[in-house]
Amino acid sequence: MPSRLITRRNALITGASAIAAPFVITTPGFGQTGPIRIAGLVSMTGSGSPFGPNDRAAHQAVVDQVNAAGGLLGRKLEYLSEDDQTNAEAGVRGARKLIDVDKVQALMSVWASAVGTAVLPLCWENKVMMLAISAADTIAELPHQGYFVRTQPHTVLQAKEFARFILAEKAKSAYLIMPQTPFTESVLKTIREEVEPKGVKVGTAIIDNKKNSFRSEIDEMVRANPDIFMMGGYLAEDIVMAKDLFRAGYKGKVMGFAYGITPAFIEGAGKEAAEGIYSIADPSPAFDSSAYAKVKALLKKDQLDTFQCQAYDHANLAILAMAKGKDPTGTGIRDNIRKISGNNESGVAVDNAVDGLKLIAEGKEIKYLGASGPCKFADNGNIISVAFRTAQVKDGKLVQVKM
To answer: Quick one: pLDDT at residue 403?
Structure first.
């Protein structure tokens, strides 16, 4: 993932080239006014590739379910997707294809913050709604005119969870290593602000994620001998750091972002190197919710990751918001999403679009409570209520240790 953010001007220029063919599944037999198109801009390759295929499957399953029940506002839904490659430039190319050529009304489950930052200007300029995972705090600060919500907690919330863990472990010192990302500075700053006044000494380093080894940075960290070390990378960086840590013989506690500490991480780093590492700041799916049970049955899976739950919620929210406003556009989603989500305290609770569409047709108020949580959004698009979980690698598997 490149460290340089693409500017709005460069995003518009870059998007004029290299258009790739989209992934499309259509369903015949609907009215003559044309399909309502929504899309996933998902990471099928790059650092986000462990999650993109699952996100796309969740989107498609919701669309298929709604089409089987009669569609949206008498029209067929059509789902398309593009691979953003977990890369800002590729994300802009994919977004331009979906927006300019395919005329989609929503871009869903944008994962990487660099991609979200580069693509959001295209969304608000074209009145396309972005329902995102991207966590960088700065995205919500862009002038998005309401064409943005995210179900992933923004990075300050995640950083505070790391700080709580450091303090709960009664650490006297911590060392944080992260690659340069749109959220690196805010994470490091937040952790410092939370723990240093309580007497915790903090060291930091920013790495070049294109390197094949971080041994020099790891050796410097080991010399500082902190009680807790944070690997703040994506999957690829964390695998390299874990191997270097193991060779260096570091004995302190190790933690990392949940998206970087996955089963693929354990496989890549090796069971011995991964053992004992903590996975922090993973927003927990709403395990006990009816929506979580619904999406498990729909996708025929025993377990779901948090991003797949968010993707399921994105598709349901976009569809229900368009139905509520009788407006199958990005503006219709923007203007109505809080009227059908957890923000609408007086609504009838629903956990899927099909049931919600029936109630809306009957003139009833609804509140969608999702597989990722209550889906309640602040005015700037940030998710309001999130439950976090902590897991640890034990005997080659991630085991939940604290909620």
So the answer is: 54
